[in-house]
Amino acid sequence: MSDVDDEPGYRPEVAMLFEPSVQCIVDAVLARKKDLGESVTHVVLVGGFSSSSWLFGEVKRKIEEVDGKLNVFRAEHHA
Predict the structure, then answer these.
(1) First CA to last CA across the chain, in angstroms?
(2) Most exposed residue of 4, 22, 39, 58, measured as fewest CB within 10 angstroms of its CB?
(3) Residue 5 CA: distances (Å) to CA of 14, 54, 61, 71
(4) pLDDT tens, position by position, 9-61
(5) pLDDT computed for residue 39 by the predictor
(6) pTM of structure
(7) Nearest Cα to 75, choosing from 54, 56, 55, 61?
(8) Pick the residue with more confidence: 47 or 76?
(9) What are phi and psi of 3, to 5 degrees?
């Protein structure tokens, strides 16, 4: 898990429900990068999921663990 595990309101039993969604996002991003090649260096998450600190942190951590050349971001004012 990520640093946001200590975030107020964080509940591991609820986070577990979103783990399949996290993995689906990670798999889709990595597959798309594979299709496009090495020119992809940044991923910007948008929408409702990106406003969750936990979900954003998990997606970012997992993508960057697999491909250290990918930088994952979200808009500064994501909420």
Answers:
(1) 22
(2) 39
(3) 12, 7, 13, 22
(4) 678 888 888 899 999 999 999 999 999 988 899 999 998 888 888 889 999 99
(5) 87
(6) 0.78
(7) 56
(8) 47
(9) -65, -20
- Exposure string for 2-37, b = 16+ CB within 10 A, e = fewer: bebeeeeeeeeeebeeeeeebeebbeebbeebeeee
What is the predicted pLDDT for the residue at 14? 80
Distance CA 63, CA 67 (A): 6
- Two tokens at 2? 């990520």
Q: From CA 1, how far away is CA 77, in angstroms rounded? A: 24
